[in-house]
Specification:
21% strand, 26 strands, disordered N terminus, globular, single chain, 586 residues
Length: 586
């Protein structure tokens, strides 16, 4: 048997050998595969609560780990019976042990890059401008960049370079919006990028340079193609710089309890996405990678004829124990904040626009059909409901046209989904991937989103529970660094918002309508563990604490299933283990 077969056999045997909830008989253990029972355990976790998420029972008393694998889930006596002279006993002291978090959609490289400059998650425009001015004085040379300004700081036409030019007339500067989809640049940055009245937009009406009445660029730059062209002109993205930035974030990820990530798109070096993804492999070789990685090949614009060939090449090129590339990420539209999300009906506050997509409907069907025929899954960025519908249409058509197989497609963000489309997630077995942290009743959602959609649609945002009630699958991911109001990579905060639909830290804050879309604690944890693991085809190896699965475990300072959900964000990850190795210890 190969390693994966052993893991699956062990996981299956867990269910078959249960005597009582959370307990296993010694004779049942003796029937497990030899590889599972040889030698003493390396770790025994005991004297606490074990929330398994999956398996024959939700709770257990102790866990034993040998090598990379969980070898006992059940009673404390059984775990201790597997100990040897070198076994490390970890006394939980009543704390909660649960599976490590599986992030179903995040951007470690983009997050490390965007958030390494000036933090502009501030209350208003005067505070932002004051922060930029002070930062410029304290850092008198070189380009200036930052992240976090919010669209509600500006009128619908967006920010203007004049506000930056008054502070920074001679130095290039650019600042990412908190949604990660747009940029605010000064005149010097536009000049360095060669952006003028005569510069064509990369994708007209979708990825473009906003212009004033005279046709001159205002400094508001929208969507990836236009944004990257300016960033690379001012401060080129290099693999070396990205590697250094990633290294600073890896311990933070481990401290947040993250043991697996789906990287939903890396910034390319030129057109080479593999050069950045390979940096994960470099970290793995050095032993500094604290999580396993499912990476994606991103498609942001035309041409699409080469997608399958390039995806296949990356899939073969990058395939290690912890890092693999086997999903095609399709950037299907933009964001509501910049009026680039693709809607079925016009924006309420811009009635001549329904937003846009880099692809026509025919191109959508062609792209997803080709990817599906090649045996790869798609992961679609869909903030707008038309994008969700067209993606579902294309997936449904591909299922009908191509040979039967087990598909694990996902559609992400789903700010608003039309009533007619939400049951299709269950019907087509498409995971609804939510950025739960966005679903709070914060000023961005209450003011900007409702303004964009109008009250009728604006009161039906982020309907996570609806998908579950209709039999669909849900996963969580922070989409770090992108956000609506506050940016975070910490799953515990995302889980809290998925449960409360309120801003973190404000117990009496408004609840986002519909209030009955709030998840239970169990549902939210499942979305950030088994739900995301299923999405990534890893549910037989990770996502729950079961015999035969990988030892991806975290110890929390509080039992998040019992405390007030508004206090979840205060919980600390006091120990993190991935693949049987302790990666974080507070």
């Amino acid at each position: 048997m190969n390693r994966r077969s052993v893991l699956r056999a062990g996981a299956a045997m867990t269910a078959a050998t249960a005597l009582a909830p959370g307990f296993f008989a010694s004779d049942a253990r003796a029937q497990q595969p030899k590889a599972m029972t040889d030698g003493p355990a390396d770790f025994v976790f005991h004297n606490g609560l074990v929330y398994t998420v999956g398996g024959p029972a939700p709770w257990a008393d102790a866990v034993a780990v040998r090598g990379t694998t969980i070898v006992h889930v059940g009673d404390e006596a059984g775990a201790k019976a597997m100990a040897g002279p070198n076994t490390q006993f970890i006394d939980l002291k009543g704390r909660l042990l649960m599976p490590g978090f599986v992030e179903g959609h995040t951007h470690p490289f983009l997050g490390a890059f965007m958030t390494s400059g000036l933090d502009l998650q501030l209350a208003n425009l005067p505070e932002v401008l004051a922060a930029i001015k002070q930062y410029a004085q304290e850092n008198p040379t070189g380009p200036i960049r930052g992240f976090g300004w919010r669209v509600d700081m500006f009128p619908p036409e967006g920010p203007n370079r004049a506000e930056l030019d008054a502070i920074l007339p001679d130095r290039p500067a650019f600042f990412f919006a908190i949604d990660g989809h747009s940029l605010w640049a000064n005149s010097k940055a536009l000049e360095m990028a060669g952006v003028s009245r005569d510069t064509p937009d990369p994708i007209p009406r979708f990825s473009y340079y906003a212009r004033d009445q005279n046709g001159d660029p205002t400094g508001y730059v929208l969507e990836t193609n236009a944004v990257l062209s300016l960033v690379n002109a001012v401060e080129p993205i290099s693999a070396q710089a990205m590697g250094r930035l990633l290294e600073t974030w890896l311990p933070k990820a481990a401290a947040a309890g993250i043991t697996t990530v789906f990287d939903a798109g890396v910034p390319p070096v030129g057109s080479d996405q593999g050069a950045i993804i390979d940096l994960y492999v470099d970290a793995e070789k050095r032993g500094t990678l604290p999580f396993r990685v499912s990476a994606s090949y991103s498609v942001k614009s035309l041409p699409i004829d080469n997608v399958v060939a390039e995806m296949s090449a990356l899939n073969k090129q990058i395939a290690t124990e912890l890092v693999h590339v086997d999903i095609v990420k399709i950037v299907g539209d933009g964001s509501q904040g910049g009026y680039t999300a693709w809607l079925l009906e016009p924006y309420a506050d811009m009635p001549d626009s329904t937003g846009g997509s880099p692809f026509t409907e025919d191109q959508w069907h062609q792209l997803i059909g080709m990817v599906d025929a090649a045996g790869f899954d798609v992961h679609v960025h869909a903030c707008g409901e038309r994008t969700a519908r067209v993606a579902l249409d294309a997936i449904e058509k591909a299922i009908a046209a191509n040979p039967a197989r087990e598909r694990r497609n996902a559609i992400a963000h789903l700010v608003y989904v039309d009533d007619a489309d939400s049951p299709r997630f269950a019907k087509l077995n498409v995971t609804a991937q939510f950025s739960a942290y966005w679903s709070s009743a914060d000023p961005d959602t209450l003011e900007n989103m409702v303004a964009r959609y109008g009250e009728a649609r604006g009161n039906k945002l982020y309907r996570t529970k609806t998908i579950l009630n209709q039999g669909g699958r849900v996963s969580f991911g922070t989409d770090w660094p992108a956000a609506g109001y506050f940016s975070t990579y910490e799953p515990l905060k995302s889980i809290q918002v998925g449960i409360t639909r309120q801003l973190v830290g404000l117990k009496d804050a408004p609840v986002l309508s519909p209030a009955d879309e709030r998840l239970t604690v169990e549902e939210a944890i499942h979305a950030n563990t088994m739900g995301a693991a299923y999405q990534l085809r890893m549910e037989k190896e990770i996502g729950s604490i079961e015999v035969g699965k990988r030892a991806d475990l975290i110890v929390l300072s509080q039992n998040i299933l019992k405390i007030d959900p508004h206090e979840i964000h205060k919980t600390r990850v006091e120990l993190g283990m991935m693949n049987g190795i302790i990666r974080h210890q507070a």
